[in-house]
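Protocol step 4 of 6: record predicted structures for both targets in the notebook before any analysis. Target 1:
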Amino acid sequence: MQKSILLTILSAIFIVFVGMGIIVPILPIYAEELGATGFALGIIMAAYAVSGGLLQPFVGTLSDRYGKKGFLTAGLIMFAATGYIYTMAGSVLQLVLIRFFHGAGSAMIIPIAMAYIIESADGHVGRFIGWFNIAIFAGIGAGPVLGGFFLDFLGKNAGFYAMSGLSLISAILVIAILPGQKADTPTKARDRLFTVFRQMMRSRRVMGILLARMATMIIMVPTFAFLPLLMTQQMGASGSQIGTVIACRTLINAFFQVPFGKLADTRDQNRLLMAGTVLIGVTMCCVPFATGFVCLLLLFAVIGLGEAISWPAMGALAAEEGKKFGQGSMMGVFNMAMNLGVFIGAMGVGALVDLLSIDWAFYAVGICLIVCAVAAAALIRHDPVLVKK
């Protein structure tokens, strides 16, 4: 049973993130064609984060009470519908509304899938989180390559249709194979919704984990929204080259997830978290100095390595807290912090690009990530609850 749950979740997540990755090279260019400025592009990216971030804690806690399969299936079907609706956008405002709907679907997928994985881990949380991250980043890594191909040879709408079809396949897998789950979480997870949140927010350890999660997601905006513009405006890059650079980061990340996941099960997770995030931050600051395609490829490979070091450790730390508050509840808040990071990055970075230059999209998030990584590590380290087993 454990193996079937793991394989089904990993297959579904891989497929849906391939679909999401396909639109990565397409969406910024599509938005620009509709008249989006840098700030408007930031709003488009932020809309996904706002709806997903607001809904994830509620969906996570409700899934602890009523079971997870129905929420996961509904989210995948929403993703399938969104892929088709993207092709109907005729203005920036319509694109923003579609992104809101897309984000709402994500609230029912990512935290629920993570909770399934963690509850099946049986003492190997770091390793299982590593496999989960492999599915995500392998999907996102493979997707942009396909998206670049669609953009160059088949047109932008083909990428959106592919996302829709792949999400539908993922939903069918979940319906057909994944068993339902009854609520079996600790008593605290069954308390009133806002009581659970207040309890989590009082923990310095939880706050440190959420700060790290938020900071690592701020980098998604310059990577996914402004890197394609940087490469086309300053290097004359093709859609395939843009997709390859993004894929390099995510595939390197995926390749090293399992070894660093095993390491997170036996070593100091807090140190791994800080080391990986600082490495990402420093490398991000170097991106504007890249002289061409190959240089960018190497820099994003280093960013992928930093993510491989930090993400399994971060997930393992969150899973430990999930034993107290319910995995659905903790993963909901954990991923709310992810969406908050995307929102802050989208709004702040979009404004910086309009006021200064596209280079500041990378300087700002790199510095922010370093500062937040150090602060998060301090919060986690000084929490008296954190005792290494």
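Target 2:
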Amino acid sequence: MFPTGVQIYSVRDHAERDFFSTLEKLKNMGYDGVEFAGLYGYKPKEVKEYCEKLNLVPVSAHVSIDDMLVCPDEVFAAYQIIGCEYIAIPYLTEDRRPGGANYENTFIQIASLGEKAKLHGLTLLYHNHDFEFCKTGSDNKYFLDVLYETVSPAFLQTELDTCWVNVGGENPAEYLIKYTGRSPVVHIKDFVKKSKDSKSGLYELIGITPAERQAEEDDFAFRPLGYGVQDIPSIIAAAKTAGSKWLIVEQDRTCLGLDSLECMKLSAQYLKKVNI
């Protein structure tokens, strides 16, 4: 059975009101760990102590590449204090993607950050969306594959988001197996969409919201695990084959009239049935 955690941004509304109470509720649902998206005003030592009190593992954290570059030692030291093993780049802005002004430099910066993270006892991860599944270069490879070919595994591991792998046109289980030995943390996420190429309502995680959006009628919508189109059992089996260590549940926004914690509870209940 895999240890499971929650990306705290999934329950950000509760975490903003009472961070520690939210951690406790997630632990009571049966989750083993958490992945941070900010510390909500608390000091690293306070977060470490509360996680220890709950016996909740501080698995990893999402921190923007720009924040890491501004003060890498400070960022890495903070999450080292908390006890995280991993730190992840959650997103790349358009200037850092193929054709962007900072594209080539980004690879160099990621390698440098991965090397520095290692000095602090952390492993740098990259968390994908679907835009990384664009073909680039003369060899017509996915941007995501080019990233992992360019930056050494010694300095960068994967945090494959299985929802976005699917939306990007690849089979999540097969793609996980492709990165066997390089996929310690897996984002496990479910969704529905009305048509094959629908893109409405996609990017909530980092605050990018379409100018016009219907709250519950988007072509694309997130779901608790087991309530969407993902083949979760095959993804879990692939994670085992790939040598993954953690499954991190993420649901970028709520659905079906459910509260964010209710969504996490449904996902926890489903995982108890299939995570064997």
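Step 5 preliminary note on target 2. The domain at 4-189+223-274 is CATH 3.20.20.150 (TIM Barrel). The chain has one domain: 4-189+223-274.
Proceed to step 6 after PI sign-off.
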